[in-house]
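New to this. Help decode both lines:
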Amino acid sequence: MNLPPYQDFPTISDEKISLRKIIASDMNDLLEISYYDAKQAKNVEEAIEMQAKIDKDYDDGNSIHWGIEDISTNKIVGTCGYYRGLDKGEGELGCVLLPQFRGQGFMTNAMLLAIDFGLKNMALKRIWAVTSKQNIQAIKLLERLNFIKLTDLPDDEIEYELKR
């Protein structure tokens, strides 16, 4: 397996988006969706602190967290990455998109790029995702990307697994 951290942080892209390293100047744009351990940042300083924890998780080999950049504007529109299970050759794929960019295909592209990277570059044996039962758009996206429902979880969540 080829797991993080990498000598060079991987940037992957298609015709619409680029998954790239998040930098301090992105934090103003990402404040609304900056979370760590289910806690949302209240200000840019907290978002920067949270990003430092995310960067440490990456340096420790526990995750990889990309910013989703719209190639046409060079603006960050969301985040995507693997956050758990890497030590077992698995990855929990998570993502979040700024509300004004939903429904425009950004997350589909980001998930496809991340899945491809996880399978080919990281040699993950299993990819899964967790979402709330109320997040109908996420459920539709996961199912469209060939994830199958595994189980209902506590706190009104559902676990999905990529069918291969």
User: Anything to note?
Assistant: The chain has a mean pLDDT of 94. Residues 12-162 form a domain with the Aminopeptidase fold (CATH 3.40.630.30). DSSP finds four helices and ten strands in the chain. The first strand starts at residue 12 and ends at 13.
